[in-house]
Amino acid sequence: MGSPDDNRLRFQLRFTPARVVRRKKDGFVSEEIRKNFASDNVTPICPEVMAALIAANEGSVGSYGEDDLTRSLNERFGEVFETEVAVFPIATGTAANSVALSALVSPYGAVLCDESAHINMDEGGAPEFYMHGAKLICIPSADGKVDPVTVPPVLKSNAESGILSPVIQALSLTQANEWGTVYSPDTLAELSRIAHEHDLSVHLDGARLGNALAHLGCTPAEGTWKAGVDVLSFGGTKAGAMAAEAVVFFLNDRTRPLMKNFLRRIKRSGNLWSKHRFLSAQLLALLQNDVWLKNAVHANAMAQRLVDGLRRHAAAQMPYERQSNEVFVILPDLLLKDLEEAGYGFYRWPTPEGVPGTLIRLVTSYYTRPEDVDALLAEIAA
Amino acid sequence: MGSPDDNRLRFQLRFTPARVVRRKKDGFVSEEIRKNFASDNVTPICPEVMAALIAANEGSVGSYGEDDLTRSLNERFGEVFETEVAVFPIATGTAANSVALSALVSPYGAVLCDESAHINMDEGGAPEFYMHGAKLICIPSADGKVDPVTVPPVLKSNAESGILSPVIQALSLTQANEWGTVYSPDTLAELSRIAHEHDLSVHLDGARLGNALAHLGCTPAEGTWKAGVDVLSFGGTKAGAMAAEAVVFFLNDRTRPLMKNFLRRIKRSGNLWSKHRFLSAQLLALLQNDVWLKNAVHANAMAQRLVDGLRRHAAAQMPYERQSNEVFVILPDLLLKDLEEAGYGFYRWPTPEGVPGTLIRLVTSYYTRPEDVDALLAEIAA
Amino acid sequence: MGSPDDNRLRFQLRFTPARVVRRKKDGFVSEEIRKNFASDNVTPICPEVMAALIAANEGSVGSYGEDDLTRSLNERFGEVFETEVAVFPIATGTAANSVALSALVSPYGAVLCDESAHINMDEGGAPEFYMHGAKLICIPSADGKVDPVTVPPVLKSNAESGILSPVIQALSLTQANEWGTVYSPDTLAELSRIAHEHDLSVHLDGARLGNALAHLGCTPAEGTWKAGVDVLSFGGTKAGAMAAEAVVFFLNDRTRPLMKNFLRRIKRSGNLWSKHRFLSAQLLALLQNDVWLKNAVHANAMAQRLVDGLRRHAAAQMPYERQSNEVFVILPDLLLKDLEEAGYGFYRWPTPEGVPGTLIRLVTSYYTRPEDVDALLAEIAA
Amino acid sequence: MGSPDDNRLRFQLRFTPARVVRRKKDGFVSEEIRKNFASDNVTPICPEVMAALIAANEGSVGSYGEDDLTRSLNERFGEVFETEVAVFPIATGTAANSVALSALVSPYGAVLCDESAHINMDEGGAPEFYMHGAKLICIPSADGKVDPVTVPPVLKSNAESGILSPVIQALSLTQANEWGTVYSPDTLAELSRIAHEHDLSVHLDGARLGNALAHLGCTPAEGTWKAGVDVLSFGGTKAGAMAAEAVVFFLNDRTRPLMKNFLRRIKRSGNLWSKHRFLSAQLLALLQNDVWLKNAVHANAMAQRLVDGLRRHAAAQMPYERQSNEVFVILPDLLLKDLEEAGYGFYRWPTPEGVPGTLIRLVTSYYTRPEDVDALLAEIAA
């Protein structure tokens, strides 16, 4: 696709995708061993979502969301989250985060977030584009989680700077975050309390919300609005969809004015599908029978199986606790080269100085099977 | 979906979508009579594209376009358009137009277009958003087509205004345009010649390019770059896809610098799918065996069948020549009410003053069958 | 200054500024005959404003508006306009209009204005930049004035377009406008009434407000908020200042929420002077003893003197009634050439087809003397 | 001025401006003792600039820069900087920095700078606004200076992130910077070399360039383009002007394409004065007889006098070396209270934890006299 001079992807040159495709299994013509641990977005569409796309492909319906599937979204999400919500489907996570934030802050405002946040590091400047130049003000952390004690001093300093600094109007948190770790509902609630006290609204980037909930063992409600979250980017793509996320406003006095004209923001940013039913169908399929949560439980279990195996290798160092479906591990460079030659896919991460080896990220998904994890562990052991 | 206070759609309140769904026919469980003529985007996904989505759903592949389907796009489009191209898939037409234009003009620049153009009237301000506030400078016309003689005076006046007016840097044309009429390749070439002489690049909004080509009987090459078009928004959704358009750069000395970093613009606007294969698969399916053109030929024929029938009704006035798959017709208000009660879907359009009745738009598609047209005509005759 | 490739100014090549500078008169070392009628911004600073700048240049004071002169602005403007106001000084009219409009409309919104409006034709796209891509939706007119009867249909069509069209949230009027004509307070009030009924706020571009008030013979209050104006761009530069305009919010229920954080908008757009007293001093000097209005009365009288003289020339055609300090007149091309050779400065305007000669604009100011007008008339008569 | 709910200025509540104004001295009716050390922008206009404003106020001249003063800028600045330049006057430093950066980076790009940089901390988000949402990527430092060894790793990481991170296209340095320290020409040259190797252009925020040059004892050329600087924000306001900065492009192969249409950017951002001569006159007056540098030499000497005096006080801790006209000193809180009660003006700064007292900033200027410094020192000693 497109321009040859684009430096396309982080660490791309080192990434060799697995290509061994042989036989049919669980509905897919697929790799014998699934060796691509680069991300949970290298996966196909899960069977339930694909079935929903096929089922939705019947007859003429109103475009731009004037269809029955779309009309049922608010109610269905409301049931899952046990509260009144307004749901806006969007194909990509970057767009969902960005358009959500654009409703929470003025162009002269700012969003407070962790320095490692996806919105700051991995979305190509989309939040700043959608927010018309509003600023991300970042707090560094060791593990990707904003520590509540660090927030009040930043807000105080921001207030003291007056008009010289963009005014912080929202707090954006990621659950599970970029290092695979997870906020407890108590910490979320504490952060939300501080935010609300300072007139900030709270946004949750939930691209991997299911994995976080699966880890915490709490309900979607407990992990979001009951902990003070105002607006959620609900992640569907990594949970098994083709391309489907949703901005979910939990209705309250703070969110009602913010969501005014939100559909205009979606249209104006090119995110409104004319054949909108196919966006809604994916989301409904994920909610149906808790597919998104079941997929997350499975992905987490596969990540734990990987961690358990890696712990048996002296050379493997894991700097973060495994709390979702991402495993960060430092492995010797020679071993990594062997893995790549064996067809395994993963991303290298910046590695702390002085440590022998390289930090890599291994991501599991609904599509990862125990035998795939075991094969990788065997390859590492060999 | 979403906010109840949004005034969602043009003339929405009057629109009653057809809901009579009964039995299986040509692959769809579908309406016995397809009564929704509101747009070519109320239709389902055509069988070839759906098959391609299913076929693409196998195994892990690189994300963000690092997959074999995406890698084949440039070559495949190059074959169809008989020249070297760079292709960037995008889910919606609004985003495709807008991100394309953002590469052609500076934020302090302007785009020249017809006043009726989709980018000016129907995209919710997306072009201005993507272009960071660059201006659309519009020329009025009777039939939605920019008349070449009107262009040089506007460019002269723009040049004379110097820095007081945003500098026009691109000409955007729509083919087929909002009134369903079509530029001849000669007129396109004349407009492109004028544009290039004044250092403007030429963008073609081809949301219904197939319908225009089907009407003109010319090749994709003759209807685009051979007539001077530099950048095309290739329309897939209305041609039968789920959600798939493409920005196609025809490579030449003007376009090569403009497309630099184009993928960054796509990522930054939230348009880059992680599971990118499913965007590419749709486009490839449309090109395979000329599905897009065959669908367009069929849609045009259905529109002509409709025109032929309407001509037999004294009350029906058709202000524009039918040249694609859109039919504009003025019908008595009582008749329109009857049609709506019978379940027919269509949009009302602003009607010239003093004319009895109301101007409506009837759009056909690959999904419209002769019996559907005949049923509508019979309803009108009744 | 700067880049040689910029096409700097409208009709610049034909403009030869008067350069005959000889002797001192009324405080200025100045041209014997003042021949530059190109604009009211080719003039020097009027004596009262210059005296105020010198007077303000004493001692250290707080920066960014924390000075006594600035602190007195709200009260002083409040006296002149006979109501409670919030005043924000800004150096240029383009910035004042643009930052004002950015507070009245959302980025997904639109401003309704006359097609000839300065914000649409002469500000280099600044309104769109400051409004983050919000759109100007323009109504054509014969004389630069929005006709009240044309407004409701545009608002109705905009509402019916729903999310497909940016929502019109403000009406911007120009007083006096680009063709030198002036709204009556009754017409202003009628336009404001329509605007407010549709939830639009009303902005008045008053770069030449003094000239309009001088023509109408009404008070500043009658010509603005009593006629429904919510926000005014108060023009100081053309009235005699060096570089000083002001955004004036007339406080009411509509404007109070809009002006929230307005100072942030000013800072963020680079318009906040650190040595702010020198901006405020200019404005206060104009208000003191009604200098701005006296200057306007004089400028208008000089324009009328010019009109009276031109009427005696058969070849002179004046398409618009003289209502402020701008005179539009069609004169034979040979005569214009002679005027330029004699050192006269003026701008050519696009001339209606079929008319012999060229339309030019002659602008008078506080700095124009009767003998200057008479000299020009004599030159034309010769 | 304006809205009462704006939180206007950093630490404003603690700031009590000196108000003791008594008698005439050196041209000013002024404070007996000048007690306002809050900033170098609390000062009046220096006599040479005021004289130039008065001198420029003669006769009609072309507007928007079509005047002789403006026409002479390129040559005059070229003499001072000993190279070919293109000069664009702008009233405020925030606007000068922001419009300059907007020419150096694409909206999808980024600027690399020190975390403490004025563009990051003190300009209310103006750079992001002017750059249409391009990002500031910041490097932390101890003393406000980017350390050359920290740059390559950031550029490497940025390149590896590919399209996921906005591409760094410019390096912005501040001279003298926010902590009053100064880059040596060698360090500047080293930073520029790294930047140019990576296709970054180099911007210098020279709001206090004169103070830096005065400290370094090098020529303007040695301190800028000979050390690799491509574009300079030349600071005039703090050097004695009313409101006058300039964007200075040092012409080379990198800058020539970047400055294309730069005047359009100035107009579009509302920064183009119609009575442009008064902006140019200020700058010319500063250059004439090296007024800007002489003022800087004096200001620096006054700062050194202050440092010398403070060193005699055991309680005074100065964390940074005095290299320009800013003195940072930690003083006991009781003393600060006494100083404020005595009418002294200064800003409090965030103070490192565990240190007794508070960090304050004391700024000297052309307007500070030895007796003013001595009076302050005496007050502290008392």
TrEMBL record, chains A, B, C, D:
Keywords: Lyase, Pyridoxal phosphate
Catalytic activity: L-threonine = acetaldehyde + glycine; L-allo-threonine = acetaldehyde + glycine
Segment forming the signal sequence: none
Keyword Lyase carried by entry: yes
All residue ranges annotated as the Aromatic amino acid beta-eliminating lyase/threonine aldolase domain in the record: 37-329
First-level EC class: lyase
Cofactor(s) the protein needs: pyridoxal 5'-phosphate
Its EC number(s): 4.1.2.48
UniProt keyword Lyase, yes or no: yes
Matching InterPro entries: ArAA_b-elim_lyase/Thr_aldolase, Low_specificity_L-TA_bact, PyrdxlP-dep_Trfase, PyrdxlP-dep_Trfase_major, PyrdxlP-dep_Trfase_small
Assembly information from the UniProt record: Homotetramer.
Function comment: Catalyzes the cleavage of L-allo-threonine and L-threonine to glycine and acetaldehyde.
Family: Belongs to the threonine aldolase family.
Protein name stated in the entry: L-threonine aldolase
Source organism of this protein record: Gluconobacter japonicus
Lineage per the UniProt record: Bacteria, Pseudomonadati, Pseudomonadota, Alphaproteobacteria, Acetobacterales
